[in-house]
Amino acid sequence: MAHLSGRKPGRALSRLATAVIAAALVGTTAGTAVADTPAPAPAPQKATRSAAQAPAAARAENGESRADSPVFPLMASRGDGSLFMYYPDGHGGFADRRLVTDKWRGITAVTQTDMDQDGLADSMYFRTLDGSLYFTTKDDKTTRIGGGWNIYDRILSPGNLGGAGQPDLLARDKDGVLWLYLAYADGTLTDRYEIGGGWDQYTDIVGRGDYNGDGKTDIVARDRNGVLWYYKGTGDYKRPFETRVKVGDGWDQYDFLASSGDVDLDGRSDLLARDKNGVLWLYKGNGGSRDPFDSRVKIGGGWDQYNNLF
Fold first, then answer.
1. Torsion of the alpha carbons at 310, 90, 114 and 173, rounded to the nearest 10
2. pLDDT tens track for 59-93
3. Which of 140, 234, 269, 297 sits most deeply, having the most CB atoms within 10 A of its CB?
4. What is the pLDDT of residues 139-160, one digit of tens each?
5. What are the φ/ψ torsions at residue 261 (nearest 5 degrees)?
């Protein structure tokens, strides 16, 4: 079971949000480290990072939250610039929300990450209006990764995909090609590696950690017909996912899918789905290799006030 006391996660996430806002408003903040790397290459480049360059995912102190089943807060933003965080309540739901900021503007994509691999969020990648991608940490260090990221319509970091220990980045371009960027411990990225085309058939691509209990990061994707597909991770950056497995139909009843990791604190990553009436549902991870989720459990209504959950 994850243990959150004594880590001051709320304060760390508030600092992260402040750094994101500062970069969105002025490009970079005074005193930040800036790595002005080129925009993503127009052609795929083979990634060269070896597994020996980063530590393997491990349990946090006292065997608590793990990198393969992390416990992240669910972040929720509204169109008025408000950003809230929700922490798991230990019963399969969330505690009362906390306001992080009322100035959450100018961010076109964001994903939480866990660079120290203790199973708790400590950093973020985010994209600003001009297409710049940044990486910011709880220690108030913000790095500009590079420009040109507006070529992507999906950016997410489900976890360690390449086998070298750090949470890596997935990005889908507007032609439907999915790309993998392997991450270093400082948040910088390798050249992109092409996973393949056809990913524009999906309206949602989400994941946070391991769904089937093999220690490898997985994702799920919903297609335009409302079918949910399960992509099991391989741990190999050259082929990060196995052939997809059908989870089930009827997922078009939802207008948003999200994953913040292990919501019910049972050691397995879970899936969240918001229906078109604003009700949020929890699909608890069961460790299955074909259908990794139990039947849904209602969390509550009112979630249609948010335009993004991450």
1. -30
2. 333 335 578 999 999 999 999 999 999 999 988 99
3. 269
4. 879 999 999 999 999 999 999 9
5. 100, -135
Give the per-residue pLDDT at 138. Answer: 87
Copy the structure tokens of residue 80.
Answer: 């008025």
DSSP alpha helix (H) spans, the chain: 9-26
Task: Please tell me the distance from the alpha carbon of residue 247 to that of residue 12, in angstroms, as a whole number.
Answer: 36
Single-letter code of the amino acid located at 3: H
Say what the pTM is. 0.84
DSSP state of 246: E
Using DSSP bridges, classify how beta strands 133-137 and 123-128 pair: parallel, antiparallel or unpaired: antiparallel
Distance CA 217, CA 232 (A): 7
Which parts of the chain have pLDDT scores under 70?
1-14, 22-65
Cα–Cα distance for residue pair 280/296, rounded to 1 Å: 10
CB atoms within 10 A of CB 42: 7
| Cβ contacts of 152 within 8 Å, gap of 6 or more | 109, 171, 172, 173, 174, 179
> Six-digit token pair at 175?
């032609």
DSSP-derived 3-state class of residue 303: helix
Closest CA to 162 of 56, 243, 77: 56
> What pLDDT shows up at residue 50?
30
DSSP structure string for 75-99: EEE-TTS-EEEE-B-SSSSB---EE
- State which H helix or E strand residue 84 sits in: strand 83-86
Q: Which of 89, 133, 146, 141 is nearest to 115 (CA)?
A: 141
Any idea what DSSP says for residue 141? -
Place of tokens 């400082």: 186
Write phi, then psi, for 251 (nearest 5 degrees).
Answer: -80, 0
161 neighbors 175 (Cβ within 8 angstroms) = no
